[in-house]
Known about the structure:
This protein is α/β, with parallel strands linked by helices. The chain folds into two domains: about 60 residues, Signal recognition particle alu RNA binding heterodimer, srp9/1 (2-Layer Sandwich), CATH 3.30.720; about 55 residues, no CATH class. The chain contains three helices and seven strands; from the N terminus they run βααβββαβββ. Strands 4-7-6-5 form a four-stranded mixed sheet. The chain has a three-stranded mixed sheet with strand order 1-3-2, covered by helices on one side.
Amino acid sequence: MSSIKQFQVTFDCAEPERVARFWCEVLGYVIPPPAGFDTWEEYDGSRPAEEQGSWCACIDPSGVGPRLFFQRVPEGKVVKNRVHLDVRVGTGLVGEERLAVLEAECARLIPLGAVRERLLYDGTDSCIVMQDVEGNEFCVD
Length: 141
């Protein structure tokens, strides 16, 4: 029986590089240039015109988190995500202390293009539901 050692999370989107750069800012990830190129832009510009901007990927520079892959699709998002990312900034915290940390992270993400949807808070546990730059839901948890 084999064991999976790595996985990536794939996003369907209209503008792969834009969404990848948003998530790089959120998570501290980077967009590595493919082998033989100094930058992502150099690589993407070298591709045939119809393939430029069709995908982008980012990685955790520490090697701990999964690779995120963004692929261009023709259709827009029409319903709630079936899978979403939780940005875990409040682990181990409860109540007002947790809420303050989540609110601070939410405030950091809004200028990057994130949209706040709603706060879920029961007096102890909380999370903030948000959307990325293309409307994909995620939680600040």
